[in-house]
Design goal:
With about 300 residues, this protein is an alpha/beta fold. It has three domains: about 5-85, Arc Repressor Mutant, subunit A, CATH 1.10.10.10; about 90-160 and about 270-300, Periplasmic binding protein-like II (D-Maltodextrin-Binding Protein, domain 2); about 160-265, 3-Layer(aba) Sandwich (D-Maltodextrin-Binding Protein, domain 2), CATH 3.40.190.10. It has eleven helices and eleven strands. Strands 3, 4, 5, 6, 7, 8, 9, 10 and 11 form a nine-stranded mixed sheet that branches. Strands 1-2 form a two-stranded antiparallel ribbon. Helix 1 (about 5-15) crosses helix 2, helix 1 crosses helix 4 (about 60-85) and helix 2 (about 20-25) crosses helix 3 (about 30-45). The longest helix is centred in the first third of the chain and has 27 residues, at about 60-85. The N and C termini lie far apart (about 55 Å). The model has no long low-confidence stretch (mean pLDDT about 90).
Length: about 300
């Protein structure tokens, strides 16, 4: 029994796909399939049910999976202990992130983590919050940064930043801040993010609590680019609701006005999301712990 055979089996069991497992292991799909067939012959038992469309483990496969994961974990821990001994922690951390965390928060965390562990590499891709969660549930990735929470017993969230949506308008559009309510805005054109965006999810949820919805605004422009939304608002094409942290420079420079709408609950947390049912490498465990104790005091105060 070889380690690469065990590794191939665990990857297929977790990814539920021979092709995805092959990509993760940087191997060809036939090589992964061959490794598992050799393992099954050595053990004298079928580990994977190939009769069904979806990848499922046999009863024997489920039993062996628990031990296989333990073997991989022990090997990873051994490598990690030796790399720490050599002060040489390395690895790749793959992250999917929604717009706000990716553009305004994640760079600070990656920089701080790399200052401590300079040999760790990051692969970061953009998805909206719903897509990030879907990719984690499918087993494609281990980590996501999102601005909306989707209930699932398989998911765990670590909140790392408190956020508030604010109303932004063109400087040509001056409201009286003290008396401004959502009802004052229903006659306006509104620019909103696409379906699946955490920002849109929060805004629609807040409207629903007031028995309102987007159809009550004069008209809508849907856009998947935060930067484009800010530019269109500055040109007085409409109003929008965005994260406070995303418009600090534009408000300071006078390109945009911002207001708090006190009769809407527009508070949220940005979170690191991951699956409860996944194996994490030692460097990924360190990253989780790093985010868990992260403080923004030195960055924004």
């Amino acid at each position: 029994m070889e380690f690469k055979q065990i590794e191939s089996f665990v990857a297929v069991a977790q990814k539920k796909s021979f092709s995805n497992a092959a990509n993760t292991l940087f191997m060809s799909q036939p090589a992964v399939s061959s490794n598992i067939q050799k393992l099954e012959r050595e053990l004298g038992i079928k580990l994977i049910d190939r009769k069904t469309k979806n990848i499922t483990l046999t009863e024997g496969g489920n039993i062996f999976y628990r031990y296989a994961v333990e073997i991989i974990n022990l090997c990873a821990q051994a490598e990690h202990s030796l790399s720490e001994y050599n002060n040489n922690i390395k690895g790749v951390i793959e992250i999917y992130a929604s717009t706000m965390p990716e553009q305004y928060l994640l760079p600070y965390i990656v920089k701080a983590f790399n200052d401590v562990y300079p040999l760790v590499l990051f692969s970061i891709r953009h998805k909206d919050s719903k897509e990030v969660v879907d990719e984690i549930l499918s087993g494609k990735i281990n980590f996501g940064f999102v601005g909306a929470k989707y209930n699932s017993e398989a998911l765990q969230y670590i909140d790392f930043y408190d956020d508030t949506l604010v109303l932004i308008t063109s400087p040509q559009n001056n409201y009286t801040s003290d008396s401004l309510t959502i009802n004052n805005l229903l006659g306006e054109k509104i620019l909103i993010r696409e379906e699946g965006s955490g920002t849109r999810h929060l805004f629609e949820k807040a409207l629903k609590k007031k028995r309102l919805d987007l159809s009550m605004f004069q008209s809508q422009i849907i856009c998947d680019s935060l930067e484009a939304i800010k530019k269109m608002v500055a040109l007085n094409l409409g109003i929008s609701f965005v994260s406070d942290i995303a418009v600090k420079s534009e408000v300071t420079s006078g390109c945009l006005n911002k207001y708090e709408i006190k009769d809407l609950d527009l508070n949220r947390h940005f979170s690191l999301v991951f699956s409860n049912n996944r194996y994490f490498s030692p460097v990924e465990e360190k990253f989780k712990d790093f985010v868990r104790v992260w403080s923004w005091d030195q960055i924004f105060h």
